[in-house]
Fold:
Amino acid sequence: MQRRTFLEIGSATALGAIVVPNWAESLLKGKGLKNIGVQLYTVRDDMQKDPVATLKKIAEIGYSHVECAGYRNGTFYGKEKTEFKKILSDLGLKMHSGHAMTGFGMPAGTYSMTYEWEKYCADAAFIGQKYIVSAYFMDGERKTLDDYRKHAKLFTECALIAKKHGLTFCHHNHDFEFVPIDGVVPYDIFIKETDASLVKFELDFYWTKKANVDTVKLITENPERFPLFHIKDMERSAEQSFTEVGNGVIDWKNVFGLSKKAGMDLFYVEQDSCKNMKPLESIEVSYKYLSNLKV
Structure:
């Protein structure tokens, strides 16, 4: 961040003139990033075994908020919503965001973007979410450009309902959205065929790296469409495996330098698989790196 910009933010904050976004608050501290979140998919096995103990450990590491990957048919990780909200509150954690599936191949009545979406959004709002995110496309729902056009239409429908509940709808990318089909990049369909004020994106930097995406260009051409970042690192190896944040090839200073242009509000550590240590150990390594990263 340039000195002039830093001083402008600092002066405005002192005067109470603006509400400082989460990314700026982190930078203003001058002692590394703050308000660090974690996507619970990383610790999915631990959450299945003992969600309370797992969340307690996450809070002890220093994470302030989590992103849900375990909402199933009206419950959060097997807990009724009131109980789960109290668990989070007792541990000093927030849940600002949560992932959802389209519902492709799932039985009717299963909570998803296709079935019971109104209830899904109501429960997300109750738990304290600000964002609700399309998480992933199954193999059978991403074969053609028409598949992606149907998803773009579904995004708009879901976003309108989410908005009624005070939620912002986003889509989380993998690498396959950037692989051209018949000369067209599927991700471009999402960008062009949805309302920029309604449909936003959660940018996963591991997957954009794997797809050789120019993230500077992507963000510059689509400013303020990326309120959520997934902070996921890539191992320095031919396999390009997932690794702890700071142990890989991604330049995180440059990534966080894109925050303002992107309109980033929150960011989440995520590691799809952990081969060198246990998931809870991995997220602690990532947390320590980010909490000492001076952008």
User: Anything to note?
Assistant: DSSP finds 13 helices and 13 strands in the chain. Residues 1-18 have pLDDT under 50 and may be disordered. The first helix runs from residue 3 to 14. Residues 198 and 221 are 17 Å apart (CA to CA).
